[in-house]
Amino acid sequence: MDEQDINIKNLLSQIDDQSVPFGFETKVFDKIEKRSIQLESTRETIKNIVIAMVTAAALFASLFCINQYFFKIDFSSNINFSFFTKALNSISSVFKTEGSFTWMILGANIAILLICERVISEKISKKRSDKN
Amino acid sequence: MKREEELRIIERIKCGETSLFNQLVLVHSPKILSIVRGVVSNREDAEEVAQDVFVKAYFSLSGFRGECSFSTWLFRIAYNMSISKTRKQKRINIPFENAGQIPDSSNDERELISEKERVTKLLYNAIGELDTGDKFIILSFYNHEKSIREISEISGLSESNIKVKLHRIKKRLSILIGDKIDLCYG
Fold first, then answer.
1. pTM for this structure?
2. DSSP category for residue B96
3. Complex-level ipTM
4. pLDDT per position in chain B (186 positions), as tens?
5. Looking at beta carbons, which residues of chain A come within 8 Å of B97?
6. Does residue B28 contact residue B71 with C-beta atoms inside 8 Å?
């Protein structure tokens, strides 16, 4: 360190504020606790999703095996594709009517409002929990 | 706190004695708060970042292998968090009220003190003009006496890069306030 370094160091030491605000450690530990709970619930959710997926896979596999060895039903020949096309056509015809456009706009607006409400309430609750 | 003692405490925390983390917070919070206050302009934001540094450290403690000191490791977390925090702020201005208090003195010294105060303010503004990474580097070097090697570990930049950066910052500060520093300390 040369003389200039020492001078800068002296000046910087004046703006060095090492004071610790009251309750700093408590706030740190509160945050740690909150994060632990959050991590725990995330782990729990992931565990539940995995269990549900494995159970569903096992159920489908068992149904497939039962069908393969006992019932021997060929599902591919039973699917009536023309029925689906007809159903789709009838659904799309509903949207082609005159009033349907107005209803679609109304529906879209309600959906946007609902999304906004969810986003705002999430932000408010997050702010509240951060303050606490 | 000695390094061996600190490592022993960390090992015990890793084994489940989580309440011992409080000791580490008590020892390191003044320095972490000081460095973050110097980098993050808003005092409340700085305290928030400092808290988050310890929270992050707590949950990443299993990744601490003791290759560097715990303080350097904490500084690295603080460096990354301060940079991500200030990235969100458009313009960074360090408020002068953050500066340490200059003690009361006799009338003869008043003139010199006001000059010192002015120079300190000037220095503060000059540092405020630097980008977050550079601020962190200069405060770690001068205020926290971190070596070039440690700063390199903190920032992830090479030692030569740190030397160049420090030289440039020093040069810039000397241009801005060089002659005034000599007035006060020369």
1. 0.67
2. G
3. 0.73
4. 677 888 899 999 988 888 899 999 999 999 999 999 888 878 888 999 999 999 999 999 988 888 888 999 999 999 999 988 888 765 544 444 444 444 455 565 666 667 767 777 777 777 777 888 888 898 888 888 888 999 998 988 999 999 999 888 888 877 776 655 554 544
5. none
6. yes
* Chain B residues in contact with A18 (beta carbon < 8 A): 30-31, 33-34
In angstroms, the separation between the Cα of residue B51 and the nearest Cα of chain A is: 5
Q: Which domain holds residue B134?
A: 3-185
Q: Using CA atoms, how far apart are residues B73 and B174, in angstroms rounded to an integer? A: 31
Whichever domain contains B43, its CATH number is 1.10.1740.10
> Least CB-CB distance to A28: which of B54, B99, B138?
B54
Burial class (CB in 10 A: 0-12, 13-18, 19+), B35: buried
Q: Work out how many domains chain B is built from and give that number.
A: 1
B168 and chain A in contact, CB less than 8 A: no
φ, ψ at B90 (rounded to 5°): -75, -55
- Contact of A95 with A104, CB cutoff 8 Å: yes
Is-contact B127 B35, C-beta < 8 A? Answer: no
Contact at CB, B55 and A32, closer than 8 angstroms:
yes
CA distance B66 to chain A (A): 22
CB atoms under 10 Å from CB of B153, counted, come to 19
Contact of B33 with chain A, judged by CB distance below 8 Å, is answered with yes
Q: How many angstroms from the chain centroid is the CA of residue A30? A: 24
* A12, A14, A28 member nearest B51 (Cβ): A28
Cα(A41)–Cα(A38) distance, rounded to whole angstroms? 5
Under an 8 A CB cutoff, do B100 and A4 touch?
A: no
Interchain CB distance below 8 Å, B142 and A31: no
Is residue B162 within 8 Å of B108, Cβ to Cβ?
no
B135 touches chain A (CB under 8 A): no
Say if residues B33 and B47 touch (Cβ distance below 8 Å). yes
